[in-house]
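Box S2. Input/output pair 1.
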Amino acid sequence: MEALIKEAAKAPLTSAGSAELDWLRGVVHLAAGNPAKAEAVLSRSRRPYPLGTITLAAAAIARNAPERALAVLSGLYASLGPDALDPWDELRAGVVRAAALSALGHAEEAKDAVAAAVVTAGSHGLEPDIPLLPAEYREPLNAMVLERYPQTRIAPDLVPPSAADPALTPRELVVLREFAQGDGTTAEIAERLNVSANTVKSQTKSLFRKLGVSSRAEAVAEARRLRLLD
């Protein structure tokens, strides 16, 4: 799938096509169990794309950040208005919102959101599936759906169980702070920390993997979003 996406990206794309391609990349990362990469891809889109924003909220939930998911959805509603969403997007946004509310302990609000999503699905002949959420978030929603609508077909899980935000080692945090302070080379950072360049390279590779990024700039941006540099 990733190879097909890369091939498609070589062709000239409109802004809408680029946003849709980013959404597809985000879905692939999410399904592969890497919500950090999904968030990084989906956050860079410059064109409003409701499905991409909804998937971004789902990625936030997969990273155990339901408050962030609600903020993302609130931004979507504020920018477009709920009436601007097509039935599928309205359904998906409602389900993701319900998952976030459930994760925050707002069970009754979550049930109301699920009920509204199912009504939306039924009125447009859609299946109220919940495919872009980790199993631990899907299960309570599935139970809410079946409690009120026992004939509903429940789609299989797509996204692996979520993981907590990465725990960096003290030495990885030191290297990360070096990245945040400037553009020193690996050798210069190693000299300041009184370690070998290979040690810095190893710690850099490890913190990139944990943060789901591929550059110093991305690492610093992700660390600031996660408040690791506070």
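Box S3. Input/output pair 2.
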Amino acid sequence: MVTGPVLVIVPTTRFLQGAWPAVVAAIVLWAMMRSMRRHYGATAAELAVTDPGAELARPSRVVAIVLVATAFKAEGLPPRLNRSRSRAPISKSAEPVGD
């Protein structure tokens, strides 16, 4: 019984005492996020596959970048890393690297 009037009176008095910028900002942010959700929903609907039996497009080329802390001469590298100078991939699976 008391909860309803409290939910009306407290925000109203806070709003009139100077909290109106926070209330307006919250409403603006809510509206912006709601419009972004609608946009992403519409984009997802446009990009959805309508025919599950259709063959999906495959990437034309896959590029992997391996970050190396230091560089060594090719003569000192293990054979599996020495082959990495070619443009062909060594393998199609990831290999764990030890210290």
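Caption for Box S3: Residues 35 and 41 are 10 Å apart (CA to CA). The first helix runs from residue 3 to 47.
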